[in-house]
Amino acid sequence: MILITGITGLLGSALCEQAEKNCSIHGIYLGQYKVMDTPSVRYSVCDVCDRDALFGLLDRDDIECVIHTAGIASVDDCEQKPELAHRSNVIGTKNVIELVRAKNARLVYISSNAVFDGTKPPYSEEDTPHPINRYGALKVECERLVRENVQNHLVVRPILMYGLNRPQERKSFLMWILETLKSGKQINLVNDVYENPLLTNRCADAIWRLIERGKSGIYHIAGKDILNRYEAGLNIARVFGLDPDLMTAVPSSFFPSLAPRPRNTSYTTAKIERELKVKPLGFEEGCLFLKKRILSQKTAE
Ligand SMILES: NC(=O)c1ccc[n+]([C@@H]2O[C@H](COP(=O)([O-])OP(=O)(O)OC[C@H]3O[C@@H](n4cnc5c(N)ncnc54)[C@H](OP(=O)(O)O)[C@@H]3O)[C@@H](O)[C@H]2O)c1
């Protein structure tokens, strides 16, 4: 059985969707949102920070691999609520590591591009982390804990992900821009922070391939195009036929209360392309894929 922590998240949901049909998955989440069940997945509410609850729930389960995605993934929440962010990410990861060791399982830890300071892009797996915000520092700490305590481990660093959300879930930036433009509201988007946005389904697909092939070490996963949020917004408006004039390009300094963001953490995807034979998806192609999905969902309703 494969255990996925954070099963209701952006990535957790995509992992369920991209899994092989006969894959046995047990997913845990905190319980903030109601889950729309994937029939083949067993869902449980469980806080990874609660060691006894975690071990009690999984006591009898035979676990071959844990994909650990759970934790506070909002950069600003981590900055504003340091104790909660530490508990959620570090204590949660320590408990997961203990579980993995007890079960003699494999651990796939989901890290982030926030481990880098953004001054020397594009980043490869060989580059040395140097975070500039609390979220990035927590990811570096968790990566170290994983590396030092689990022999059979894989660290995956996705970059800014976009995909469809169920109502109430934490919105991907694409859904946020799309819904704001659809409602005819003005929106300010930063034009000085660059990433290569990654479709959630593509990320999940790459993670399953890494697991199937027994890979270990660090892997960066990203889309093809290096864009700032304003440029991404223009693509979204074009693909979905919305008004681009509702968007205004602003510098990061326009939002002084937000946590500092590294300026350019874009990745080189050479390792994943070479080893998995995957071709990173362009952002416009990703938007077109999602547009088709939205249309097919509407037709099915
Ligand atoms: N999103 C991105 O653009 C991005 C980019 C790079 C890396 N990452 C990393 O990828 C991973 C997944 O991100 P995401 O965007 O999918 O996150 P997300 O949408 O915010 O989902 C987080 C998931 O974790 C669960 N969770 C949170 N705290 C928990 C706890 N203490 N115990 C059990 N479950 C808990 C949540 O459950 P509830 O729904 O019940 O709260 C939810 O299922 C994270 O590690 C993040 O740092 C994300």
Structure report:
It is a single chain. This protein has 301 residues and is of the alpha/beta class. The protein has a domain of 204 residues: NAD(P)-binding Rossmann-like Domain (Rossmann fold). 40% of the residues lie in helices and 15% in strands. It contains ten helices and eleven strands. It has a seven-stranded parallel beta sheet, with helices on both faces. The model has no long low-confidence stretch (mean pLDDT 95). The structure holds NADP nicotinamide-adenine-dinucleotide phosphate (NAP). NADP nicotinamide-adenine-dinucleotide phosphate (NAP) binds next to helix 1, strand 2 and helix 4.
Report on the biggest sheet.
Answer: 7 strands, parallel
SS element count, helices: 10
Estimate the strand proportion: 15-25%
> What is the helix fraction of residues, given as a range?
40-55%
- Average pLDDT reading: 95
Second-tier CATH architecture of the domain at 2-163 and 198-223 and 267-282: 3-Layer(aba) Sandwich
List the bound ligands: NADP nicotinamide-adenine-dinucleotide phosphate
Low-confidence stretches: none
Order of helices and strands: EHEEHEHHEHEEHEEHEHEHH
Q: How many β strands by DSSP?
A: 11
Distance between the termini: 33 Å
Q: In the CATH scheme, what's the topology name of the domain at 2-163 and 198-223 and 267-282?
A: Rossmann fold
Classification by helices and strands: alpha/beta
CATH class of the domain at 2-163 and 198-223 and 267-282: Alpha Beta
Strand order in space, largest sheet: 3-2-1-4-5-6-10
- Global shape: globular
CATH superfamily of the domain at 2-163 and 198-223 and 267-282: NAD(P)-binding Rossmann-like Domain
